[in-house]
Amino acid sequence: MLDFKNKNKDSVTINSMKLVAEGQSRKVYTSFEHKNLLIKVQKNDFSARRFFQKWKILVKLRTFYKQTVPLQREIREYTKIKSEGQLTSQYLQRFVGLIPTPQGNGLLVEAARRKNGHLALTLKEVVAEGHFDDKLHSELRNFLRWFVASKIVATDVHLDNIVFDEINNRLILIDGIGDKTLIPLRAWFPALNQMNKKRIAKNIYSQVAINFMSSTMKKKALMLLCFISCVALGIDLQDGVLFNWV
């Protein structure tokens, strides 16, 4: 394990990093040095708000805050929840350490994958591709129960930062932990944090239902369109030849 307190213990070069995903605030890379791991690096190209642009000192302070505070708070969550036991280690992406990169310090985490070796699909992609079945529905309910009951501080959890690990048949939370606000009220007040997580869990469940219905309706509409087209062209769906009109 890399010791995230010792930033010079290991490092990666820009040539060994390959961009595999990009979010609103971070980029995710793979590295030849750490093939089974991913490196999450905070973006540095965010634009300052109009108010901050008037004062250079505010721009610098906001830049420093964005580059350091969210990362520190996320690491704090990873280290704090070690005592929560098996469920948290099952549903939360495994944190390995902090590693220096040419683009700043990055989080080194274990990669969740599909059976074909590719990176795991997000929950949104799983539903869209029609792979959401009864087993995954049951797994989602278990995941959300853990999510609400856990002491983990979560702020921005949605269908794009929950992935399905096909190897171990489980859902994994890969992002959205740690309070990103200037005053971390959710970290200070557990009741407020749990209330927020209940709201997030309900929203996730409803979004899965909406996306599932949308995906199902699209498939049915496509099948209906195919049927109508075949009838219009006089093609028998039974044997694929033209209807015998006589």
From TrEMBL:
It holds the Pfam family YrbL-PhoP_reg. InterPro entries: PhoP_reg_network_YrbL. The chain crosses the membrane at residues 221-243. Keywords: Membrane, Transmembrane, Transmembrane helix. This is YrbL family protein. It comes from Pseudochrobactrum kiredjianiae.
